[in-house]
C-alpha cells in the first residue's frame, strides 16, 4: 500500500486537475489522505466531492507544517509501506506512482532494509499547462547525484512533490521541526545521512508555475544571478536547520558528519578566511561553478 499525502490551501482553481491525475494512475493500490490548511475557497468541498479521507485541521501551518502533520498522522494510523507527497496544483503523469515504486523496489533489493528516498525530474509548465522547460533539473542546473549531506545542508536537490519515501525513513523523521527550511529538504537530509537517495531522470509530473506558488522554478541564467547577487544573503536559515539537525540526529551520525554539522551550524562565528577554508575543506558547496563563486563572495 502507498499513501499519497495531499496538503491544500485555497487550491480550488487547479485541484480537480490534480485529483483527476491521481485517479488516472496506472498503479491503483494507494490511498489519499488530505489536510486542508484553512482554505476560504471551495477546496474542502472539492476534496469531499472526491471522497478523499480528510485529516481534521484547525490551524494554518504552511506547507512544511501541514505535510509534517500528514506524515505523522499516516505513520500512526496506517501500516502503509510507502509515502508520497502531493501538491494541489500540479498534474501527475499516469505512470508516476508505478515508475517511482519500481525504482523504490529496485533500491530495496540493492540496499536492503534501510531508509530510502526516490525522487524524479519534473516538466515545468505555466498556468495552462504549456511547457516552459522539459526538465526542471536542467532549468535550475540541479545535479541529482549531488546528494551527500555536506551538499544538502546548503542546497536542496529534492522536490517534495516528486518524492516517495519508505516507512523506515518516515519513522526516522517523526516530525518536521520549525527550523527546517522545507519538509522535503529536511527529509532529504535524513535520507542522505542514514540511508540512500535514488532518482529517476524522466519528468513524471507537470510542475505548474503561477503567482501563488509556495515555492517555484527559477530559470538558471544571468538574470537569475544578477537578482540573487543584489539580494542580501541570509545564511541563518541554513545554519539554523543544520543546528536543529545536529540536535536531533547528532548522536546517530558518524564522527566526520558530527564535526562538519556542528561547525557549520556556528558558521557566523568564523572570520572571513575561516568560513571559506571550512566550506572548501568539507566540500560544502552548491551545484554549479557560478553558484559557488557567489557563495564564496557572499558567505
Structure in words:
There is one protein chain. The chain has 299 residues and is an alpha/beta fold. The protein has two domains: 2-208, Spore Coat Polysaccharide Biosynthesis Protein SpsA, Chain A (Alpha-Beta Complex); 222-298, no CATH class. It has helices spanning 15-23, 43-49, 62-77, 96-111, 136-139, 149-152, 167-173, 183-194, 222-230, 236-249, 255-264, 272-281, 289-298, and strands at residues 2-8, 30-36, 53-54, 82-86, 91-92, 116-125, 131-133, 164-166, 196-208. Strands 1, 2, 3, 4, 5, 6, 7, 8 and 9 form a nine-stranded mixed β-sheet that branches. Helix 7 (167-173) packs across helix 8 and helix 10 (236-249) runs antiparallel to helix 11 (255-264).
What does the secondary structure layout of this molecule look like, with pairings?
Blueprint: E1 2-8, H1 15-23, E2 30-36, H2 43-49, E3 53-54, H3 62-77, E4 82-86, E5 91-92, H4 96-111, E6 116-125, E7 131-133, H5 136-139, H6 149-152, E8 164-166, H7 167-173, H8 183-194, E9 196-208, H9 222-230, H10 236-249, H11 255-264, H12 272-281, H13 289-298
Parallel strand pairs: 1-2, 1-4, 2-3, 6-9
Antiparallel strand pairs: 4-8, 5-9, 6-7, 6-8
Helix pairs in contact: 7-8, 10-11
User: Share of helix among residues?
Assistant: 40-55%
Structural class: alpha/beta
State the helix count: 13
Number of domains: 2
CATH topology of the largest domain: Spore Coat Polysaccharide Biosynthesis Protein SpsA, Chain A
In short:
The chain has 13 helices and 9 strands.
Keywords:
alpha/beta; nine-stranded mixed beta sheet; 299 residues; single chain; 9 strands; Spore Coat Polysaccharide Biosynthesis Protein SpsA, Chain A; 2 domains
Amino acid at each position: 500500500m502507498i499513501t499519497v499525502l495531499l496538503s491544500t490551501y485555497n487550491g480550488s482553481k487547479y485541484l480537480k486537475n490534480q485529483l483527476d491525475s491521481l485517479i488516472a494512475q496506472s498503479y491503483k493500490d494507494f490511498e489519499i489522505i488530505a489536510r486542508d490548511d484553512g482554505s476560504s475557497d471551495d477546496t474542502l468541498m472539492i476534496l469531499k466531492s472526491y471522497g478523499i479521507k480528510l485529516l481534521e485541521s484547525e490551524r494554518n501551518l504552511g506547507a512544511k507544517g501541514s505535510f509534517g502533520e500528514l506524515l505523522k498522522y499516516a505513520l500512526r494510523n496506517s501500516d502503509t509501506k510507502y509515502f508520497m507527497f502531493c501538491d494541489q496544483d500540479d498534474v501527475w503523469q499516469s505512470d508516476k506512482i508505478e515508475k517511482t515504486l519500481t525504482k523504490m523496489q529496485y533500491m530495496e533489493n540493492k540496499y536492503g532494509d534501510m531508509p530510502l528516498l526516490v525522487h524524479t525530474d519534473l516538466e515545468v509548465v505555466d498556468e495552462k499547462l504549456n511547457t516552459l522547460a522539459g526538465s526542471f533539473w536542467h532549468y535550475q542546473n540541479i545535479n541529482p547525484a549531488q546528494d551527500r549531506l555536506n551538499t544538502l545542508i546548503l542546497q536542496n536537490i529534492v522536490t517534495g512533490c516528486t518524492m516517495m519515501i519508505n516507512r523506515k525513513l518516515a519513522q526516522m523523521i517523526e516530525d518536521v521541526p520549525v527550523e527546517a527550511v522545507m519538509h522535503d529538504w529536511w527529509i532529504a537530509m535524513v535520507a542522505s545521512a542514514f540511508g540512500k537517495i535514488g532518482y529517476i531522470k524522466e519528468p513524471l509530473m507537470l510542475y505548474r508555475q503561477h503567482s501563488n506558488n509556495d515555492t517555484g522554478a527559477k530559470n538558471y541564467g544571468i538574470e537569475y544571478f544578477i537578482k540573487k547577487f543584489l539580494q542580501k544573503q541570509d545564511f541563518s536559515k541554513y545554519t539554523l536547520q543544520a543546528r536543529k539537525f545536529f540536535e536531533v540526529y547528532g548522536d546517530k551520525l558518524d564522527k566526520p558528519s558530527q564535526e562538519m554539522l556542528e561547525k557549520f551550524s556556528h558558521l557566523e562565528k568564523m572570520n572571513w578566511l575561516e568560513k571559506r577554508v571550512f566550506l572548501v575543506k568539507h566540500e560544502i558547496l552548491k551545484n554549479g561553478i557560478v553558484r559557488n563563486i557567489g557563495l564564496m563572495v557572499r558567505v
